[in-house]
Amino acid sequence: MKTSALRVKICGIMDPAQGRAIAQMGATALGFICAPRSPRYVTPEQIAGIVAALPPRATGEIWSGDRIGVFVDADIATMIHTATVGQLSGIQLHGQESPALCQQLRHQLPTVELIKALRIRTAEDLALAQTFEPWVDALLLDAYDPALAGGTGKTLDWRSLQHFRPRCPWLLAGGLTPENVLTALATVQPDGIDLSSGVERSPGNKDLVRVQRLFDQLQLTHAPRELR
Question: Nearest-CA neighbor of 9 among 194, 208, 216, 199?
Fold first, then answer.
């Protein structure tokens, strides 16, 4: 298990009060679902409202943590518009986006963090990671589901990732909960973790008691940090 601090991203934020509370608990990144077909979808304007409620609101500054928009096969114009209106610091690509699209997006949004999510089912899926490494800031590994792009609650085979050492930082996702997160981190060596359904009552409605339990667990071995 890593002894260094860990990036902690809580994804699927829909409510300003919940977003603020989770930021204050210690999250280093909040994720906003920008895929209209998702039950956790929020519009660019809704993202802007959530960001406006984040600390330190009293000073008029934007929260210093990462604000990540999660897109599924969206066009570049939509992503640029959402990033601008929602004051996003990063974009996560969670569909079938190609390395070429990542390269194009990198040129058009040079200061925005790019994260490419890969849904892992086979060793071949994992091998795809290296084709994205030149164009993204980080990778995210999620569980495969034939119907859903993310937020499924399914876990990965963590043992299959024990030797995963990409050239860029990576985050572990897929069915993480306060109950299993330390087991996952004892098995694999990610630079960060990403949770959504594992700390929810229902899609988009975060259970703040479970979120706090997550951070209590992580305090046993990790201190959250920003990746960049």
Answer: 194
- Give the contacts of 165 (CB within 8 A, at least 6 positions apart): 189
Residue of 11, 34, 102, 168 with catalytic role: 11
Tokens at residue 208, please?
């703040």
Q: Are 142 and 170 in contact (CB under 8 A)?
A: no
Catalytic residue (choose from 34, 66, 142, 191):
142
Instruction: Identify the CA nearest to 73 among candidates 45, 35, 128.
Output: 35
Domain extent listing, the chain: 7-217
On the question of pLDDT at 220 being above 80, the answer is no
Cα 221 to Cα 228: distance, rounded to the nearest angstrom:
21
Asked about 125 being catalytic, the answer comes back as no
34 is catalytic: no
Report the largest interatomic distance among the alpha carbons of the chain, rounded to a whole angstrom: 49
CATH superfamily of 7-217: Aldolase class I (3.20.20.70)
Which whole number is the average pLDDT over 60-75?
92
pTM over 0.85: yes
